């Protein structure tokens, strides 16, 4: 199970770097603390963060008919498996 722990740690590290920009809350965004807390609460309620068609910046909407279509999943998979230090590069 050591491999699972390592992979989880790698994903967390990569998520901290790339996920905020997927939701429009990265550095350089003009969010107040209250707005950011409201947006994060909205994302976590009913697991909305997994849906595609995300619009967090303007009006907190998402396409609930597109589960697992959030671009954040693609970003993480590409970083984990095909990024500069990706596992896919080691296996090829």
TrEMBL record:
Residues 3-86 form the DUF6532 domain. Pfam families: DUF6532. It comes from the Eukaryota. InterPro entries: DUF6532 (IPR045341). This is DUF6532 domain-containing protein. It comes from Rhizopogon vinicolor AM-OR11-026. The lineage of its organism: Eukaryota, Fungi, Dikarya, Basidiomycota, Agaricomycotina.
């Amino acid at each position: 199970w050591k491999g699972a722990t390592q992979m989880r740690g790698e994903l967390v590290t990569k998520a901290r770097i790339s996920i905020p920009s997927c939701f429009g809350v990265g550095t350089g965004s003009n969010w107040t603390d209250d707005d950011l807390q409201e947006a994060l609460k909205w994302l976590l309620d009913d697991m909305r963060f997994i849906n595609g068609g995300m619009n967090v910046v303007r009006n907190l909407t998402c396409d609930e008919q597109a589960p697992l279509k959030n671009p954040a999943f693609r970003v993480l998979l590409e970083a984990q498996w095909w990024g500069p230090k990706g596992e896919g590069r080691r296996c090829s």
